[in-house]
């Protein structure tokens, strides 16, 4: 085999038409037991692009893990051409403990590209960027909302990138949200390497939601189909409607502490001044109506029954394409 036909990843050589599960060694526990993250590789006999599919950068974002699990369990990750690399759980420490962060207290998605001699999270980020990411031509990274905030299914990309726009449209999520790459994030580090990433957000932490899961799996199939990598036994369904492209948005925060209840469903379009929720006290003496500050789409709702003054309770679009 020529070098181009061999994928040399984490010290293991995988040829065209071969499958492999390679261990990405994260660290050792105090007991000297190794913590390994399985990296599942499927290669077609036909050469083509290499797609990296990841989830679980935050250990509490279980729904993203479920999406990648289904992609593997259903065999969608076995490509018609090219290579698909799946890492269902990057932050295995957080996943085990149902914790968003690493044991060192750091948010893995804020320490990229990492450092060989840095904190534990930083070392994992460095190894991921050095040994796995450079093989990819495209990354699909699956996330959920945190702290009881339920995200509508959405793809997040930066503005003015033709390739990302095309891929996001192919994915077919209800929303495409144009947001800046955050400093020291996985997405920003991939961007600096020239590797496009579709960041999927959907659902909330500690939760598996069937609609969000289906949207993620179907979106992955559509992208693979768009790249001529989806095998013929799978069908890429058409989205029910075109994605709403959100150019700008704002967080609506609670003016009062109390018991909170939303009056609108996720994905709803609301008019300026419309009552979209209310905050009450436990004693029946106070009832504050939350009103939409502008007309727009509600694409994140805080589902916590109790909120404090200043908590983010709704994410609402302020500018969408075509308006």
From TrEMBL:
Gene3D superfamilies listed in its UniProt record: Zn peptidases (3.40.630.10)
Keywords on record: Hydrolase, Metal-binding, Zinc
Domain Succinylglutamate desuccinylase/Aspartoacylase catalytic: residue ranges: 47-227
Cofactor(s) needed: Zn(2+)
CDD domains recorded: M14_ASTE_ASPA-like
PANTHER family according to UniProt: BLL3975 PROTEIN, SUCCINYLGLUTAMATE DESUCCINYLASE_ASPARTOACYLASE FAMILY PROTEIN
Protein name as it appears in the record: Succinylglutamate desuccinylase/aspartoacylase family protein
Organism: Winogradskyella maritima
């Amino acid at each position: 085999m020529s070098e181009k036909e061999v994928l040399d990843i984490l010290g293991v050589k995988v040829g065209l038409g071969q499958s492999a599960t390679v261990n990405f060694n994260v660290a050792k526990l105090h007991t000297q037991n190794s913590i390994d993250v399985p990296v599942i590789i499927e290669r077609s006999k036909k050469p083509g692009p290499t797609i990296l599919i990841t989830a679980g950068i935050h250990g509490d974002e279980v729904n993203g893990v479920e999406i990648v699990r289904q992609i593997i369990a259903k065999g969608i990750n076995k490509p018609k051409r090219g290579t698909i690399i799946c890492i269902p759980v990057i932050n295995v420490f957080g996943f085990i403990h149902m914790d968003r962060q690493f044991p060192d207290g750091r948010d893995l998605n804020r320490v990229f590209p990492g450092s060989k001699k840095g904190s534990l999270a930083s070392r994992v980020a460095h190894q991921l960027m050095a040994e796995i990411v450079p093989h990819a031509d495209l990354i699909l990274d699956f996330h959920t909302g945190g702290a009881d905030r339920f995200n509508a299914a959405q793809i997040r990309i930066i503005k003015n990138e033709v390739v990302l726009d095309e891929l996001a449209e192919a994915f077919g999520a209800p929303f495409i949200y144009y947001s800046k790459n955050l400093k020291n994030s996985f997405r920003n580090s991939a961007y600096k390497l020239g590797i496009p990433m579709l960041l999927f957000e959907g659902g909330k932490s500690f939760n598996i939601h069937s609609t969000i899961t289906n949207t993620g799996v179907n979106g992955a199939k559509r992208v693979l189909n768009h790249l001529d990598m989806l095998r013929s036994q799978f069908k890429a369904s058409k989205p029910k409607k075109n994605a709403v492209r959100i150019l700008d948005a704002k967080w609506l925060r609670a003016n009062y502490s109390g018991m909170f209840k939303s009056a609108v469903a996720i994905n709803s379009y609301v008019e300026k001044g419309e009552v979209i929720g209310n905050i009450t006290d436990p004693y029946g003496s106070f009832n504050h109506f939350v009103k939409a500050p502008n007309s727009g789409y509600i694409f994140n709702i805080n589902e916590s029954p109790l909120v404090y003054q200043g908590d983010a309770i709704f994410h609402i679009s302020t500018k969408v394409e075509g308006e």
